[in-house]
């Protein structure tokens, strides 16, 4: 199957069942290159499951996923990552073994540039060859880009929760992704951090990186999403622009009204 040139990701009739419970049922949508697409819906709607299937952590029972026309459903997570999809998680996952620093965590995303001995490179504190210096310089640039300049020698545990989320995002950017899958990235952030995060995601998009975003914070969604898919009980309830979703009575009844999020619709 071939997808249109403007599509980077094609989710086609994805179904996933856990012990008889259907978490996803024939979910179908496309993500265009350079777009920020949001997945919203009640808890248990299947949003994280869909990200897990897309990133290769789970295999779908039925359906297919294509990236740039190539079928990726059924591939291992490392192969999908190598093709250009990077992922963050609801619970921040940072590397702390052997006093790994903030910079070390970002360098873990450099597997494309420093293969195969990435771990050895990170913990070899001596001289660096030219390629390793270039990669380190890039990691420092990414830390500055996300707002963590000057914190490269910190231990991850010394960072605030909001900065830990930024660190995980920096590591994902280090993989040179074509597309980011972000799972609740604004969770736990205060209002000021949310405002900064909105600007950062827009800057990431301006760098040509496509984003598929799962998020409950409707301020984030309505300010950055080009398009929104609404899931409910594993099915696609609606799809459209933020204004179309805000005006959809089914979405208001199933999600926006119940969760007090309708006020973010303008």
Number of helices: 10
Strand order of the largest sheet: 6-7-8-3-9-10
User: Spans with pLDDT under 50 lasting ≥5 residues?
Assistant: none
Shape: globular
Q: How many E-type strands?
A: 10
Strand content: 15-25%
Largest beta-sheet details: 6 strands, mixed
Helix-strand topology string: EEEHEEHEHHHHEHEHEEHH
Question: For the residues shown, what is the average pLDDT?
Answer: 87
As a whole number of angstroms, the C-alpha radius of gyration is 19 Å
Q: Give the helix level as a range of percent.
A: 25-40%
Distance between the termini: 39 Å
Q: Helices and strands: which structural class? A: alpha/beta
Quick structural gist:
The protein is α/β, with parallel strands linked by helices.
Q: How would you describe what is shown here?
A:
This protein is of the alpha/beta class. It has helices spanning about 45-55, 75-85, 100-105, 120-125, 130-145, 160-175, 190-205, 220-225, 240-245, 250-255, and strands at about 5-20, 20-30, 35-40, 60-65, 70, 85, 180-185, 210-215, 225-230, 235-240. The strands form two sheets. A six-stranded mixed β-sheet has the order 6-7-8-3-9-10, with helices on both faces. The chain has a four-stranded antiparallel β-sheet with strand order 2-1-4-5, with helices on one face. A hairpin with a 2-residue loop joins β1 (about 5-20) and β2 (about 20-30). α5 crosses α6 (about 160-175) and α7 (about 190-205) runs parallel beside α8 (about 220-225). The chain is globular, with a radius of gyration of 19 Å. It starts with 6 loop residues before the first strand and ends in a 10-residue tail after the last helix.
């Amino acid at each position: 199957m071939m997808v249109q040139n403007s599509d980077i990701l094609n989710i086609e009739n994805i179904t996933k069942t856990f012990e008889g419970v259907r978490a996803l049922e024939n979910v179908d949508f496309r993500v265009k290159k350079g777009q920020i697409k949001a997945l919203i819906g009640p808890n248990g709607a299947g949003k994280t499951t869909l990200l897990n299937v897309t990133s290769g952590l789970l295999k779908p029972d039925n359906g297919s996923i294509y990236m740039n026309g190539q079928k990726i459903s059924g591939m291992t997570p490392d192969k999908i990552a190598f093709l250009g999809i990077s992922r963050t998680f609801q619970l921040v996952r940072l590397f702390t073994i052997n006093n790994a620093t903030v910079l070390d965590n970002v360098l873990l995303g450099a597997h494309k540039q420093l293969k195969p001995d990435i771990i050895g490179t990170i913990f070899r504190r001596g001289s660096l060859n030219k390629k390793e210096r270039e990669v380190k310089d890039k990691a420092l640039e990414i830390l500055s880009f996300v707002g963590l300049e000057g914190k490269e020698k910190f231990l991850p545990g010394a960072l605030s929760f909001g900065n830990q989320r930024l660190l995980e995002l920096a590591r994902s950017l280090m993989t040179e992704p074509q597309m980011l899958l972000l799972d609740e990235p604004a969770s736990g952030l205060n209002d000021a951090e949310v405002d900064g995060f909105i600007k950062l995601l827009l800057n990431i998009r301006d760098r040509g990186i496509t984003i598929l975003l799962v998020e409950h914070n409707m301020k984030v969604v309505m300010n950055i999403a080009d398009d929104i898919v609404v899931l409910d009980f594993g099915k696609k309830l609606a799809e459209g622009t933020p204004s179309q979703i805000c005006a959809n009575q089914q979405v208001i009844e199933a999600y926006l009204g119940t969760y007090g999020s309708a006020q973010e619709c303008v």
